[in-house]
UniProtKB/TrEMBL annotation:
Gene Ontology molecular-function annotations: transaminase activity
Necessary cofactors: pyridoxal 5'-phosphate
Ranges where the Aminotransferase class I/classII large domain occurs: 26-388
Enzyme class: transferase
CDD domains: AAT_like
EC code(s) of this entry: 2.6.1.-
Protein name in the entry: Pyridoxal phosphate-dependent aminotransferase
Signal peptide: none
Taxonomic classification: Bacteria, Bacillati, Actinomycetota, Actinomycetes, Kitasatosporales
One Pfam family linked to the record: Aminotran_1_2
Keywords associated with the record: Aminotransferase, Pyridoxal phosphate, Transferase
Organism: Streptomyces mauvecolor
InterPro entries assigned: Aminotransferase_I/II_large, Kynurenine-oxoglutarate_AT, PyrdxlP-dep_Trfase, PyrdxlP-dep_Trfase_major, PyrdxlP-dep_Trfase_small
Length: 392
């Protein structure tokens, strides 16, 4: 293994899912739903295979039906218009979109600002591109207990501004944010936009959890902020929105020259992906608003169930405004090392979780935080909550 990748080892998700299997624990680690997405969408995939649509290499940028559906979805939700032919690219999941974007846009030695804790593939892909990551840490807001901002992980805009150097090429944003559940506000996004324009930076924004926002919160795409349409690469995924993480259908929307750049890298990573699933996702994106509202409501109820259970078990809970993860602080349990805690949790309670420290360069900042996924059946979450009571 080369020096660029040596520090990364095996992803925490594979490690923790294997631990769950080995110990027969409830897996609230890796974020994947334990119920598949809509029947009609599954049927669409079967029909595509049977009718011979996409069984051979689909077009490099993605099948036209899907590119059109992605553009229409962005217009329907956010009023953003993208040309399906020149401004949309289908990828093998958001993971490939992240990799191809970074590999296409970075020069060795460039700096990339990423919000810490960050999704694990960001660091590895920045390294593969020979660039340097510059983390800006989100920290829990200490405001009045019970207040709306209390416990929200916040982005310090002064720190963000101070992190920009002459070598900064781009900012890698993620909202709704995995693992903290923070949904960036319009004011925060406007500040990022202003900084990007002022310092002439590109922004890659990972918005795979765009539909998972709660309590009436609004997901605001960065591309809709003033000045950002031309300098933003937006990443989406069918895995999260339609509960088909195994299909690996993702996408990029951006200005034509940026999409062309990302396509140049993408063609040599996978060339193309998931022919029949692309047709099925095209249908999924056209589901009525009621589907998306239902997805939100269902996950909000699950968030509340798991958050209450974790609080009752003695964790400090950071109530997520978005995503299907809840971050906790284990210090009230008399613990301080999330790694040790997560390795012992199967034995102690029959549950698997993720130590947030893996998403930090400043490991000490992340040490006491542990993430639980709530994209699981209600009965499974109830059983997990019962088991976790053993910790209290
Ligand atoms: N970005 C974030 C923030 C994620 O949480 C994930 C997956 N959990 C991905 C990207 C990868 O998405 P995909 O499965 O579509 O590759
Ligand atoms: N994104 C999922 C998570 O954060 C896992 C995806 C993966 O295993 N790479 O849990």
């Amino acid at each position: 293994l080369n020096r660029r990748l040596a520090e990364f080892g095996t992803t925490i998700f594979a490690e923790m899912s294997a631990l769950a299997q080995r110990t027969g624990s409830i897996n609230l680690g890796q974020g994947f739903p334990d119920t598949d997405g809509p029947e009609a969408v599954r049927e669409a995939a079967v029909r595509a295979v049977r009718d011979g649509r996409g069984n051979q290499y689909p077009p490099g940028p993605g099948v036209p039906e899907l590119r059109t559906a992605i553009a229409e979805h962005q217009r329907r939700l956010y009023g953003l218009t993208f040309d399906p032919d020149r401004e949309v690219l289908v990828t093998a999941g958001a993971t490939e979109a992240i990799a191809a974007s970074l590999l296409a846009l970075l020069e060795p030695g460039d700096e990339v600002i990423a919000l810490e804790p960050y999704y694990d593939s960001y660091a590895a892909c920045i390294a593969m591109a020979g660039a340097t990551r510059v983390p800006v840490t989100l920290r829990p807001h200490e405001g009045p207990r019970g207040g709306a901002a209390h416990g929200r992980f916040v982005l310090d805009l002064d720190e963000l501004r101070a992190a920009v150097t002459p070598r900064t090429r781009l900012i890698l944003l993620n909202t709704p944010h995995n693992p903290t559940g923070t949904v960036l506000t319009r004011a925060e996004l406007a500040a990022v936009a202003e900084l990007a324009c002022e310092r002439d930076l590109l922004v890659i924004t990972d918005e795979v959890y765009e539909h998972l926002v709660f309590d009436g919160a609004e997901h605001i795409p960065l591309a809709s902020c003033p000045g950002m349409r031309e300098r933003t690469i937006t990443i989406g995924s069918a895995g999260k929105t339609f509960s088909f993480t195994g299909w690996k259908v993702g996408w990029v929307t951006a200005a034509p020259e940026l999409v062309a750049a990302v396509r140049s890298a993408k063609q040599f990573l996978t060339y193309v992906a998931s022919g029949p699933f692309q047709y099925a996702v095209a249908e999924a994106l056209r589901l009525p608003d009621s589907y998306f509202a239902g997805l939100r409501a269902e996950h909000q109820a699950k968030r509340d169930l798991l958050s209450a259970g974790l609080a009752a078990a003695g964790f400090e809970v950071f109530r997520p405004a978005g995503t299907y993860f809840v971050t906790t602080d284990i210090r009230p349990l008399g613990e301080s090392d999330g790694f040790a805690f997560c390795r012992a949790l199967p034995e102690r309670a029959g549950v698997v979780a993720i130590p947030n420290a893996v998403f930090y360069d400043h490991r000490e900042e992340g040490a006491p935080f542990v993430r639980f996924a709530f994209c699981k059946q209600t009965a499974v979450l109830e059983e997990a909550v019962t088991r976790l009571k053993a910790l209290a």
